[in-house]
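Exercise: predict the fold of this chain.
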Amino acid sequence: MTKKECEKCEFPKNPAKAEARLHINSFLMGGLLTVLALIFTFSPEKFHIMVVAQLALAIPLILFASLSYAKVGYKENHTVWDRFGWIATNLGYILFLNASGLILAAFSFKILTIIYFGLVMLLVSIYYILNIISQKDTLKEHLSKLILWLIGIFIGGILPLM
């Protein structure tokens, strides 16, 4: 693919984005493995199966998101990798945030857990609203992403508390 043809790509090659995502995901992966190891070392019976499941499922999602974002940094035609990376990353982040909230609940921090999930939902809403405001032509895209996040937090975080 020539440089001129690549300019027509939906997403231009972006090594800086790839590197940033890889760094973030590396830190998260280390945290996920550490928390999971601590749970299994000390008292796995204290935690709801949803905590362990969401932490465990977040690991392959974040790993394959990282592999996908590595391709975003050097592939000429990488739109599919960028999309797959976004999906895997966000599902992994949702699972991680849900598990974190459920860990708070496991230690009887009910008010803090409610505040936590409320804050997550507020912040993700603000994030996507700012995206919509700054890029008016992305309303449908960012609204669907916001809905995915809110449904994911509700199903995996709030619903298990009820």
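Check your answer against the key: Residues 12-161 form one domain.
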